[in-house]
Amino acid sequence: MKKKNIFNIIMGIVALIVVVSAAYFGFTQPNLNSGTAGSRWSNENGISEIKRRGYIRVAVFGDLPPYGWVNDQGKRVGYDVYLARRIAKDLNVKIRFIQVNANNRVDTLNSNKADIVLANFTVTPERKDVVDFAKPYMKVSVGVISPKNAPIKSAQELKGKKLIVTKGTTAENYFAKQSGVNLLKFDSKTQQFNALKNGRGAALADDNSYLYAWVKKNPKYVVGIKSIGSRQYVSPAVKKGNLSLLKWTNQEITKLTQEGFFVKDYQTELAPYFGKDIKPTDIILK
């Protein structure tokens, strides 16, 4: 047999081994025309896919009144939930809620468990690296609550004391950069507020918008520091690269703002839980 024929046979055998191995181990040749990973993610969770399946998966909190929680009748309610239902209505699809904690909102998107996050998600430079934020629908800053009989009124008073925060929040990110503050971190809002009631920390830091609501329901505590750090914004978030859903959501936020939807959302879901010190313009954007 000629050397050339032997060489062709050997190369054929090698090619066969590669094909069989790829099939066995689940390897696939990359599709060079498919674009980036972000483009593929967009196809999985984009507008056309959501409409095809007939429902949108929205990640919300389950224990954060008045933004997202389950009431005594077992119904999901709150400012973010109100928005989520309107988004599903305008898409003409049903809604499936995915309950999240602050520290797993990004993972929920990246693992394709949700199409969009509406869980009091504050925009930060770090988060913009891992998710895509749509236009904001609320403004917020970090606040600090403490017992009325031992109020914390300045950041200086937190030096050497334990400050309670929820993991993955802007409050944690802010105070992690402040020297002399000892952070006591929890996975959920329920855990952090229980820790404050049990005296495990001198104060608790979180978004001031719902701290106002919490102290109204718990009058033994006060918002001693109403705002610290820079003003920030809360936005819907979608998986990085999901341009289809991002574009639609931006258009939706613009439309809802123009028609006064967020004013109605505020009056229905937030106003009953806030004190007289808070006005719609402190929360919503116009």
Explain how this protein is built:
The protein has a five-stranded mixed sheet. The protein is globular. The model is unreliable at 18-42 (pLDDT under 50). It has helices at residues 3-25, 37-45, 47-53, 79-91, 105-110, 125-128, 170-176, 189-197, 208-217, 243-258, 261-270, and strands at residues 55-60, 63-64, 68-70, 76-77, 94-99, 116-117, 131-133, 138-147, 162-166, 182-186, 203-207, 221-234, 237-239. It is built from eleven helices and 13 strands. It folds into two domains: 37-137 and 235-282, Periplasmic binding protein-like II (D-Maltodextrin-Binding Protein, domain 2, 3-Layer(aba) Sandwich); 140-232, D-Maltodextrin-Binding Protein, domain 2 (3-Layer(aba) Sandwich). Helix 2 runs parallel beside helix 3. The longest helix has 23 residues, at 3-25. By secondary structure, it is of the alpha/beta class. Helices cover 40% and strands 23% of the residues. Keywords: Membrane, Signal, Transmembrane, Transmembrane helix, Transport. Residues 55-270 form the Solute-binding protein family 3/N-terminal domain. The chain crosses the membrane at residues 7-27.
